[in-house]
Every structure is written in structure tokens, then in C-alpha cells.
């Protein structure tokens, strides 16, 4: 009797639900697409984007069509967004409607189970483990190790003509390994570095997996990296010791990660940590060189820390508290992150039809929040091309300054990145001077914006 009554009710509810869903979808389909042009079939506007400074492409589109516009690049229809409100909509408030998306070849290189590509419960689990290893309480304990890596690196560079970006990559690679493997990193540094440097050559190569290609060599190096990591994991399991580093965090979780999941995420963290931080350091060295008054202010601030420690009879090593006494240097980092905006944008994909401000963002379209356009908006940051760290004496408005992204996939390594930059700058400005060599006004792109030729400089120890 009850079933006779319930079945028709259930069927009618289902009918209403399906009808409403179809109605909403068809209504969405009637919404206009954002303004903009899609260029030629298939190639779209890819040539326009890559034949010039990409920032000029984005800025000219924004000027013409406003802060939400459509285009077609790298074989994908895209919606570009360049207002703080739209970026918050995509990355924070409606993040569940936009999934992270990367080219398939990148996924194969880094590993399918890396944090960037994941969503839902697995992503939450990984984020908790990564954040546990990179929160201030954890990274405080490696300050003296980071300091000795910085001192050693500077010492080895003095008197030489160097390519700043290359050398900064070595520094940030070593710090990344330290944060992953703790003090054990020195044991494996050589092998891991050799494999990682081969692996990265495949990141931007054609994904053709036949012997002799960059991609093939890269995939082999990836396998070797995974083997080395499996060996480290097995040694740690036998020793049964607790470790405070990222590997320790991954291995200590109750809901055990497999060796493969750990390898994908270790490689992913090296990828996320190295070139980003190295590019920012390179830009800081350039901006300080171009702005002698700012360099003097930073040097004075860092020397004051040394004097204060001498006065109190404290050890010369930096402490966490010392890094909190560097407001001028911290503003230089913020302003560099804004002006250089090394990650100009990020990628998401709409998982269903989404309405934004009366426009339709169709399911499957890529959505690109343009961080750089927001950071260079004259309404938000007056005179945006000027390098002026003092603008950060006032805290920026919410969602206007996003060098580390925003929302569920924002950067969990931001504290470590700032810490390693501060430590490096402390030793650089107090003990060394440098001069830039050759023309240094150009910028090169791919994937990050960098000073021309990686910024050749000569580094000299102060007498
Ligand atoms: C100045 C240097 C750095 C910058 C500018 C930077 C920037 C970013 C940005 C913008 C994102 C978000 C991307 C998105 O939403 O699609 C991100 C994600 C990430 N970053 Fe960083 N990052 C830096 C350094 C680091 C370091 C040092 C680490 C690790 C030690 C790290 C680990 C990660 C990871 C694991 C993610 C993915 C998070 C997730 O998907 O949940 N980053 N980073």
C-alpha cells in the first residue's frame, strides 16, 4: 500500500528535477558568451599570444573587452578574467565549479597523483600533510640549515661572472630537498639533482615517447627518481624514526599514502618550489641593483640585525624572531612579487555551465584568472609599473594581491619561500656587492618572465 503511494510520488519528483535541470541548462545556453574574439579555427589566437609579450596581449584584450573576455589558445576555448571579484568567484567561492587543469604531458611528467591535479577528499588529505610540513612551526627548525646553504652558495659564487637565475635554481633546489628530506638531503642531493635536471627537460617537449627524445629520457629519469625515493622510504621504515620534514609527514599519515603517491608529490613539490622562488630571487637582485636607495635601506635593516645580536651577545645565526624584524626587506619581496608577477595566470576548467555576471562560461572551457593584470591595475596599484616597496606599508585590499594564488589550491609553500628569500638577502646584502653585466633591460618569457639571459652579474665580497 505504502509503496503504491510512494512510487508515483518519487517518479513525479524525479520528473520535476530532470525538467528543472534541463530548463536551467537551456536557459544558461541562452546566456551570451563573454565578449572577445576566437581567432582562426583550431589555432585560435595562440600566435597572437606567443608572438608578443603575453602581458601586452592580455592587457590589450582587457582594454578592449573589459575584465571578462573570451579567446581561444592552444586548442582550447578560454575565458580570461582580470578583476579581483571574478578571481575570487573562480578560485574561492565557486571553486567546486572549476577544476585545476594541466596539459596531459605535464601530468605524466609530474605524476597523476600530485596535489595540483587532485580534488575532493584526496586533495584535502594531501594539503593537510603538505601544510603540516611547511607551516611556521615546522620550518622554524630548519632556519640554520637554510642559512648554511645560502652562505655556502654565496661563497662559491664570489668573484665569478654568474647567471643569477641558474645559481638561484641551485639554491632553491637544495632548500626544497632540505624541506622534503631534512638533513638527509645531502646524502641524496647528487643523484636526485642529476635525475631531476633530466626530467625537467621533458616538461616543455613534445610528448613523443620513443628512444632518443627529450620526453623519453625524461620519463626514464622520472622512474629513477621514484626508485631513489622508494629506497629512502624503505630505509626510513626500517629505522622507525620520526621525521619532521615533508617525507615524514607523508609517511606518518594514518591513511597511508602509497610509494607512488609519495613520489608524485615529492617531484611535484620540487617542481612547484624551485623555479618560482629562483625567479623571484633573480628579480629582487635586479630591482635592488636598479634602485640604490632601496638597496641601501635593505642593507641598513639587515646590518642593524647583526649589530643588535652582537650587542646582546647572541649567536650570529638568524632566528625566526630575526626574520620578523625585516619589514623593509619583506616589502621588497612583496613589491617584486607584484611587479614581476612571475605566475601571470593560472588555469581552471568549468565542470558545468556556469553563469557569471550575465555571461555563460560553458562546461569544458578553460578559465584563466589573470593575476598579473590585477597586480598591474592602476585603480588598485597606482603607477603600477613603478617599483615602489613603500606601497605595501598599507595592506592591499582583499583579493587584489595574489602572488601565491587564492582558495583551495593556493600555495602551501609561501612561508618557506619568503623565509628562504629573507635568509638569502640577509647574507647577500651584508657581505656582498654585485654589478649587472651587459644590457639588462630585456625580459624573456617561458614559462616565467625573467630578466634577459637570466641576469648575468658579477658578485664581489665586501671588504
Ligand atoms: C615565490 C615562490 C612561489 C610562488 C610565487 C608560488 C606561487 C604559487 C601559486 C600561485 C600557486 C597556486 C596555483 C593555482 O592556484 O593554480 C601555488 C601552488 C602550489 N605551490 Fe607555490 N609558489 C612559490 C613557492 C613554493 C614553494 C617554496 C613550495 C614548496 C616548498 C610551493 C608549493 C606549492 C604547491 C604544492 C602548490 C599546489 C597546491 C595545491 O594544488 O593545493 N610553492 N604556488
UniProtKB/TrEMBL annotation:
Keywords for the protein's UniProt record, in alphabetical order: Heme, Iron, Membrane, Metal-binding, Monooxygenase, Oxidoreductase, Transmembrane, Transmembrane helix
GO-annotated molecular function: (+)-abscisic acid 8'-hydroxylase activity; heme binding; iron ion binding
Places the protein is found: Membrane
Enzyme class name: oxidoreductase
PROSITE patterns reported for this sequence: CYTOCHROME_P450 (PS00086)
Membrane-topology annotation of the record: Single-pass membrane protein
Cofactor(s) essential for the protein: heme
Pathway: Plant hormone degradation; abscisic acid degradation
InterPro entries hit by this protein: Cyt_P450, Cyt_P450_CS, Cyt_P450_E_grp-I, Cyt_P450_sf
Catalyzed reactions per annotation: 2-cis-(+)-abscisate + reduced [NADPH--hemoprotein reductase] + O2 = (+)-8'-hydroxyabscisate + oxidized [NADPH--hemoprotein reductase] + H2O + H(+)
Binding-site residues for heme, renumbered to this chain: 411
Documented EC number(s): 1.14.14.137
GO biological process, one term: sterol metabolic process
GO cellular component: membrane
Gene3D superfamilies named among the record's database cross-references: Cytochrome P450
Organism domain of life: Eukaryota
Family as reported in the entry's similarity comment: Belongs to the cytochrome P450 family.
Protein name: (+)-abscisic acid 8'-hydroxylase
Native species: Hibiscus syriacus
